[in-house]
Design goal:
Rossmann fold; five-stranded parallel beta sheet; two-stranded antiparallel ribbon
């Protein structure tokens, strides 16, 4: 098997004004880059200006989005929890493709009042349908203890253990699944 590093996209799932997900994504990227086990890049759904699937609108970003998804070997989804579920922008972005998601691995970093657990579980169901192998370990961030005043991300040190395990699992699964594509 090739020793080529995998290309992993850290996907920012929220597009809302005032979102904190870019801070979380940057933390994940810096942590992952220090491991040096893959090529990590932040992919912000907001940059693609995806209209609601099936509704009229400017679809010029759709091909760019699908090309980006196709270029990656795996994903780390940064998912917020809004009203006990994932952000509509993330679900919409997932629905814009099918084939390019197949046989890839993903990890989940979620945040919310209950650590984003409900969002992560909802996301896992969708990832399964897209034939994305989601790893077991996830990072659950609390808006109460990991965000100062709800806006400044200051993760507790203990999250490093789960993030390390998530990255290790993602890399192992990503390499295995690459042989299927």
């Amino acid at each position: 098997m090739s020793n080529t590093l995998l290309n992993i996209g850290i996907i920012i799932g929220s597009t809302r004004k005032g979102r904190v997900s870019p801070q979380v994504a940057q933390w994940v990227k810096e942590f992952a880059d220090n491991k040096g086990d893959a090529n990590y890049e932040i992919v912000d759904i907001r940059d693609y200006h995806l209209p609601l699937l099936g509704e009229p609108g400017d679809t010029s970003g759709v091909k760019k989005w699908n090309d980006k998804i196709a270029s990656l070997d795996g994903y780390i989804f940064i998912t917020s929890e809004y009203n006990h579920g994932m952000a509509a922008s993330l679900k919409n972005a997932l629905d814009y493709d099918y084939v390019n998601w197949n046989n890839k691995a993903a990890g989940i970093v979620s945040y919310g009042s209950a650590g984003g657990a409900r969002s992560a579980e909802q996301l896992r169901n969708v990832l399964s349908e897209l034939q994305i192998a989601h790893v077991r370990t996830q990072v659950l961030l609390s808006t109460f203890i990991d965000f100062e005043k709800g806006t400044t991300f200051k993760p507790k040190e203990y999250h490093a253990t789960n993030l390390t395990t998530l990255l290790d699992q993602l890399n192992a699964w990503g390499k295995a699944l690459k042989t299927l594509r």
